[in-house]
Amino acid sequence: MKGDKMAKVILCNDWGHEQVDSIYYNGNFRTLDKSVPEAQAIAVKNGIIFKIGSNKDILNLANTHTAVIDLNNGYALPGFSDSHFHLVHYANTKRKVELSGARSLADIIDLCIKGLHKRQQENGWLLGCGWNQDYWHDAIFPSKGDLDKVSTEIPIAITRTCYHVTVVNSKALEILGLDKNIPILTNGIVCVDENGEANGILLESAQNIVSKYLGIPGLDKIKDMILDACMDVAAAGITSIHTDDFEAFSENTSDLIIQAYQELAREGKLPIRIYQQCMFKKPEYLKEFLMKGYKTGNEYGFYKIGPLKLLNDGSLGARTAFLSRPYRDAPNQRGVCLYSQDDLMQMIQIGHNGGMQIAIHCIGDAAIKMAIGCFEAVMIAHPRIDARHGIVHCQITDMSIIEKVKALNLLVYAQPIFMRYDREIILSRVGADLAATSYNWRAYTCRNVHLSGGSDCPVEKFDIMPNIYCAVTGKNPENNQDMAWHPENCLTLDEAVCAFTIEGAYASFQENERGTVSIGKYADIVVLNKDIYKVNEDQIKDIKVKMTIVNGSVKYRN
Amino acid sequence: MKGDKMAKVILCNDWGHEQVDSIYYNGNFRTLDKSVPEAQAIAVKNGIIFKIGSNKDILNLANTHTAVIDLNNGYALPGFSDSHFHLVHYANTKRKVELSGARSLADIIDLCIKGLHKRQQENGWLLGCGWNQDYWHDAIFPSKGDLDKVSTEIPIAITRTCYHVTVVNSKALEILGLDKNIPILTNGIVCVDENGEANGILLESAQNIVSKYLGIPGLDKIKDMILDACMDVAAAGITSIHTDDFEAFSENTSDLIIQAYQELAREGKLPIRIYQQCMFKKPEYLKEFLMKGYKTGNEYGFYKIGPLKLLNDGSLGARTAFLSRPYRDAPNQRGVCLYSQDDLMQMIQIGHNGGMQIAIHCIGDAAIKMAIGCFEAVMIAHPRIDARHGIVHCQITDMSIIEKVKALNLLVYAQPIFMRYDREIILSRVGADLAATSYNWRAYTCRNVHLSGGSDCPVEKFDIMPNIYCAVTGKNPENNQDMAWHPENCLTLDEAVCAFTIEGAYASFQENERGTVSIGKYADIVVLNKDIYKVNEDQIKDIKVKMTIVNGSVKYRN
């Protein structure tokens, strides 16, 4: 009846042409969005994808105000996500001698001497990081005597790749007063030799003696460190990280770290999205944090408060992972458990009831079982909608753990790249039976457990491709050799890509904002030089990042 | 090292036993949650599911404070969701003579006379609803003369099932002053006979003359009406509805309706969850609503503000659906379009920029194209994260519409039960070519478009099983006869069940809160007497609801 006045009805492209901010075209997009799995181009406004389609469809929207960027037939995926990172620790390592390449004690000494020659010092100390004794023949920790060969005048402290062990030289022991007094610590050990003297090996919280002495950088320095580190991360195609930083310097610098990130976010300087894993060791620090009004989900632009992060045990390499039975290669040890079950329960209760998502570092099976028990209890006592609690690492597992993780709907934060080293030690540490059901990532994905991928950088390098390669092939990316691990634990390629994209988004409650290339999501994109779905699987690790786009802007271009 | 103090590490059920509110056991749960697809029992606390498992696992949690409810081997699904409902209109119909069974004009007259005898009057009027002339032989609207056979003393008004046509008798015309003056309306028509006198037929907004005269019930009365209607809905296994009520009495009673729901929610009386579809016809009403601070997502317990609902055309039955070409059976008509494209664009812009999700009633293909054009324009001009705009009904479609709905990531709110009647008229209304690509629900699901299911109650009855039956079989639930519709448009059973559960939750941004039986979601459950996945498909429509559970409490039991 009134149809007449509607003569002009159109499938309309007629409004808003002048509004388009940017167009990325000539791409081979794998969107990971089932509704539009492949595309050539996207159009972006205000950081948000509003159209996906063919070059023709999208270029048709361009005008003189539009940035039109040619992807040169690059292969575009949703920007990568790393779900367990230590960004400030990584920034710290950039001030230190890099020791991850050392394959002997002699290498350590050599690299440190080279560092000295390059005057690579921080407050008068020579600092190193990344060593791993399991890569060299006799596989024993360095001690003060080894580092004294580098210098007896300059204090030296070198930290193991796992961050659970630091070794210092005699000069450092003297400066720290450990040559005279051996303190008894709650969660750490100053190791001694047969004479009762400090041998230079500092375990777990004993490492804080060094970091406390060295002091904490100021706010501006931390901001610079964060930005510098973020640029490295963006260059790896990573557009979002979950990062655990509060203990990067010594105990609880949460206020300073939060302030640094908040200021960078407010100033629009953060190139990637940050989801803060909030590590607190003591209930009073956590309570204070909650009293200030922080909780999971608080958002400050690119910076978002993430889960309470709890550290429940150590590392497998340092034999501080907490096992349900003695280490096969150290029959007097079961590892370190950093909480009693009651104390862990208390932390979880405070966090859970205070509105925090919770992610617990557990490597050993006993640590995992303890955390699962607490999660089950708190979820019975105070069920919460969609809490998304989870286990970080979740390495040494039996089938009962896997089934329980599924039954409790917990998240798993996996680091497939860890196998590169861990497969060297797992059999000797825990034995073949327990090893067979450990690092069992596929057991989670095939049960529809949400499994996200990460590097735990700086424990491992944060390049995504070697990590996906490990997850998918079970081979060592350094030499393409089969790691002789259980092939049934390998992820499918789709699962691995999802673990480093949409599952990272899910673990931060952002699956509707990012993690796929979709209309109405942020334009966070990585462009690769090869099609990960088509190359021979041995080539996956060598795929390079050509461009990183965050919120519609190019943050890295190679 | 400190492992000794951790001798007792358990997969723990030891805390919180006393905390369990209720257990539902002896069920055959189909959870729709891939991680735990089937189960026997669930445990609930504070309305939330915290454990799913076998009878043994779950009953083990019971104690003297736990309500332990035997489901008697009933078949449990996530509680049903109806994504397009008019709850207050339905409540209104309960005060009226039900005419949907009429199969002739004589039936109408007969049922009205019976209503008179039962003194079924409201403010001295006899009101009726639900008639549909297409069910009787000559398929013409009743007029005043027909209703005068019921009474010339008592005013009568009977509304068509589609709510786009009301017919009144001479007494009513007299009381309303329409016997003397025929007003010219913007969006409606007071129809006249060859003498220029009102014939009793009132189209679209002309119906408001009746409702305005009858006036609006008070707050307490509306609350009672809502509660009474909700109990009926809960008895159908429906635990959540999207409902469009603001125009249930006359133009814009939004304040009154919102107040009624808010009070019921605050008083804890709502038995089901309400997602308010907020219909506004004029920009000033919408602006006023936004100025008061309302927007999509505002939550008041069981009551949540949903999308801006816009009405863009009429109904196919009344030939008011807006088509791109003339009606085949009325070559002078293309239907009614309630907005110009500019006016519709204005409403959408205000809503979109004000933070509203938007759902637009469009039945005809021209109405749909107009809405799609506006959506595309507004999403280009002001892209928003995860807006979830959509088309309600989305009935008469060509393939370009379907592809565009997919490309713009719009939601579809479908009413499969509409086919029961519409397949009688579709060919004569629009012709075979357009009919072949209309009501094409599978075209959306197979493209991963989010499609949710509803009844548009009181346009159709809200029982879910006949609706699923129509969606899946393409048969008429009244007689099991094949509707001779396009079988390729039928949903799979899984898709249909999802349309009435998780997709309803998705369309209200609640997919992480409800829509599957999952840990950490609300315990909203329907228990059926048969397994929908195992019965012969002809039996689906006859499956009965045995129990409805909302937020962990039994709201209905048969």
Please describe what this structure looks like.
Two copies of one chain form a homodimer. Chain A has 558 residues and is of the alpha/beta class. Among the domains of chain A are: 3-73, Urease, subunit C, domain 1 (Roll); 86-214, Roll (Diaminopimelate Epimerase, Chain A, domain 1), CATH 3.10.310.70. Chain A starts with 21 loop residues before the first strand and ends with a strand. In chain A, 58% of the residues are buried. Residues 1-16 of chain A have low confidence and may be disordered. Chains A and B meet through β4, β5, α11 and α12 of A and β4, β5, α11 and α12 of B.
Name the poorly predicted regions of chain A: 1-16
Helix content of chain A: 25-40%
* Mean pLDDT across every amino acid position of chain A: 92
The number of helical runs of chain A is 18
* Amount of beta strand of chain A: 15-25%
Instruction: Profile the largest sheet of chain A.
Output: 9 strands, mixed
N- to C-terminal distance of chain A = 60 Å
